[in-house]
Amino acid sequence: MAEVVIVSTPADAGRLAAESIERRLAESERPVLGVATGSTPLATYRALAERGTDLAGATAFALDEYVGLPDGHPEGYRAVLEREFCEVTGFDSANLHVPDSDPARLETAGPRYEALIREAGGVDVQILGIGTDGHIGFNEPGSSLASRTRVKTLATQTRRDNARFFDSIDDVPIHCVTQGLGTIRDAGHLILLAFGPSKANAIRSALEGPVSSSVPASLIQLHPSVTVLVDEAAAAKLEHAAYYRTAYANKPAWQRL
Ligand code: PGA
Question: Does 133 qualify as catalytic in the annotation?
């Protein structure tokens, strides 16, 4: 099962995530980090910067990208990651891959991105946020657990959640290119982070509900190496919270995150 760690603050989660990322990338001959956008990963990027983690030899792959934003739009995920990940951690943006969502090349965007990930040797560690509807990447409820990178339609709930980054919900794109659940499952290790009460239902369903394409994040139950870092509010609805706390408090020293 996933290792679930309930922390006090996003900063605490970020520090644990950064430590795990640093170690896993250091152990890899061709280090590849899977990066995510949204508010959730920011504490991890800050913690990587504070630790001074050396990312010089690494490659990074984004989970997803909007379709239809003008080139250079500040909310396009390449721009977001350059600002919030590369500038913060010192990562060279030349080594950052984001799905090509140019409408002229959309039909082949998925397979081309899959090929790039394969050529890089696969993702060693993937950072994940979770949507209030249980999505990971932009795999909305109903996404096949075996899906690969492809064009998807955003759920209205996701567009509502992301409207805060735009002038209005009407400006949030309807389509995206996202890594599939099968793509995410291929990563060596997954770190799923969630903070705040709006994530409590999604976290409970993902960790303790049935594995189902209705809750795309429940995919983590099929992965052999997952760390879930949640604050108290996001953990509030977990039935087995006491067990997760006991397991973490009694974690053998050799068994690292
Ligand atoms: P958030 O988004 O980190 O901004 O809450 C998470 C997601 O939609 O995956």
Answer: yes
